[in-house]
């Protein structure tokens, strides 16, 4: 585990686990080692914080390329944090740029790491679960690794000020058994994956893609 990531888990992660006491189930399904794609619903910025806090392994999350290309002292600080936490840069413009970001995740998975992917492609705009994009399955098949479904509830109500305040909303994280997607049709397998995530999260399902918010 990367030193900075370990330090973050021991500090921020401990505060989250102790202060929030998230309900966690299915941790026995998390492989102790080996490459795996972690695929879950996406409700809030806090999803990554809670996943990192409760998982016993390093999880490589995605971060927008702007965090890696900034200039000046702030840019240098952001780059140091991103590299220290093992964040994978992703271009949110889509197309070939996003495909390049998936290529950046291949060495992580082939090296036995865990990469988190939110198949909806963006945060849910209304709390419902939207149709999943096939990237998570394509990435898993490319690297020959399983997909671990996860359902997260409660993070939609978490606000930045809640991290230090009181009256924290309850959060639950449920992991399902790893899914072997070898040879599966990616569209069919993605729909089945989203059905599992729906069972774990209890969300209402919407059979079309969520629209990504445009940057201001």
Automatic annotation (TrEMBL):
InterPro entries: Plipid/glycerol_acylTrfase. Keywords: Acyltransferase, Transferase. CDD domains: LPLAT_AGPAT-like (cd07989). It comes from the Bacteria. One of its GO terms (molecular function) is acyltransferase activity. The keyword Nuclease does not apply. The keyword ATP-binding does not apply. Residues 36-155 form the Phospholipid/glycerol acyltransferase domain. This is Lysophospholipid acyltransferase family protein. It comes from Blastococcus goldschmidtiae.
